[in-house]
Amino acid sequence: MKVEVIARTSKGDALQNIPLHTVEGSDFFTQDIYDALAIGEADIAVHSLKDMSSEHFFGANKFVVVERDDTRDVAIFNRDIEEKIKRGETILIGTCSPRREEMAIVFLKKALPQLYNEIRIETKDIRGNVETRLRKLNGGEYDATILATAGLNRLLRSKEDADLIKELLADKKLMLLPLIECVPAPCQGAIVAEAHHLNTKAVEVLQKINDEELFADCFVEKKEAIKYGAGCIQKFGVATLRTKNDKYLYAAGKDSEGTEFVKWDPLPGIKIEGTLFSSTDLMKGFFDYEWSDKEVKIANPVVFIANYKVIQGQSELKNLSKKTIIASGTKTWLELSKRG
Fold first, then answer.
1. pTM of the entire structure?
2. Is residue 109 domain-shared with residue 149, that is, in the same domain?
3. Could you tell me if residue 336 is left (phi over 0), alpha (psi between -120 and 50 degrees) or otherwise beta?
4. What would the pLDDT profile of 151-174 be if each residue is shown by its tens digit?
C-alpha cells in the first residue's frame, strides 16, 4: 500500500495568541482535519484523541486507537527553581489548562522542596507546541511549564526532533505528576485514526490497525467525561489505571457546575454499620521506632523509598540530594519535600 502523508496546521496551532479557555467549541485542534476527510482530500486522519470532542468521537465516522504512551503530566522547571523557592519568590508556571491549574498547582505547592515558609505559585497562559514552550521556558518567561509526558516521549523518540528537545531539556528539572492527585485529561497519550464512514477502503485499513483494548479504555473515558463537562475549560481528569489483576476507571476534579467529585469504577459498595476507624491511627502505638546513628551510604543514582518513616530518624539527607527518588506513595513524597 502506498501512503502519502499530508501535514496540516490546525486553527489551534495558528492562533497562538488566543487563550484556550476563551475559545468556543472543543475541536479547536482537529476541525480543519475533519474537513479534509469530508471533502475527500484525505482518506485517514490522525489526531491526539485528547483534542477530539466526544460529540465527534461518538459520531458517524470510523475511529480506531493505534497506540498510547504514558498518560501522566510532567512538570518541567528551570534549574534555579530551588534558589527561587529559598528566596520566597513567586514561581510562575506556564499553562493554559484549567484542569492543570486546579490540580497540579495545588499538588506542586506541597510536593516541591519546602525551602521557604510557603511556596507561592502563579499561572500564566502559554501557547505553542512543545518546542515553543520549552524555548519560552529557556528564555525566562516562565519558571516552569506542565506538559503531557506522552508528547515529550514521542519527540524524544523522533529522529528529526530528539536532539533539539534533549538540548532544550538539558539543564531542566523534571517531575512526573502522580495520576491520583493530578488526573490527566480523558484519553491523554492516545493516538486515534479516523476515516469517513462511507470510505470503505479506509475503514477496512483502520480495522486492521486498531488496538481493541486501548480503544475500549478510551471509549469508556470519553463516555465518562461527558457526564462532567467538555472542551478546553474542563477542571477534571479521567484515567484508566491498570494493575496486574484488573483495570479501574478513575475520574476526579470539578464538574461544569463547580462541584468536586471522585469516582472509581469498579469499586465494591460498602455498607458500614458501627464505627469506621483508621488502622494507621491504632497501629502506630503498637511499635517503637529506633534509628541507627550510623551513616548510610547509597551509591546508586536511583533510590526507591518504600515508607516515609525511613527518613524520620535521619538528621541529614545528603545521600539523597542529587539522586532520582522513586516514592511508594504521595505521603512519602510529601514527607521528602518537607525535608527539602
1. 0.85
2. yes
3. alpha
4. 999 999 999 999 999 999 999 999
Asked whether the CA dihedral 216, 221, 222, 227 is positive or negative, the reply is: positive
> Mind listing the pLDDT tens digit for each residue in 264-279?
999 766 777 888 777 7
Q: What number of other Cβ atoms are within 10 A of residue 142's Cβ?
A: 21
Q: Give the CATH number of the domain where residue 202 resides.
A: 3.40.190.10
> Which residues contact residue 224 at a Cβ distance below 8 angstroms, ignoring those fewer than 6 apart?
186, 238, 249, 251, 263, 265
Position 25 scores a pLDDT of: 43
Q: pLDDT of 87-98, one tens digit each?
A: 999 999 999 889
CB 231 within 8 A of CB 27: no
Q: Are residues 198 and 60 in the same domain?
A: yes
Cis ω before 184 (30° cut-off from 0): no
Which stretches within the chain are classed as H helix? 11-14, 31-38, 54-57, 81-86, 98-111, 130-138, 149-157, 162-169, 200-209, 212-226, 279-283, 330-338
The reply to whether 81 and 62 lie within a common domain is: no
User: Do both 97 and 170 map to the same domain?
Assistant: yes
Q: Is the pLDDT of residue 315 over 70?
A: no
* Pairwise CA distance, residues 14 & 296, whole Å: 54
Residue 32 is part of which domain span?
11-68+188-229
| Same domain for 30 and 86 | no
Residues 309 and 330 in one domain: yes
Contact 299, 330 (CB under 8 A): no
Q: Which three cell numbers stand for residue 305?
A: 523509598
Location of C-alpha cell 512538570:
75
Q: How far is 149 from 131, CA to CA, in rounded Å? A: 14
How many domains would you assign to the chain? 3
Contact 79/171 with Cβ under 8 angstroms?
yes
Pairing of strands 73-77, 144-148: antiparallel
Q: What is the spatial distance between Cα 203 and Cα 311, in angstroms, rounded to a whole number?
A: 57
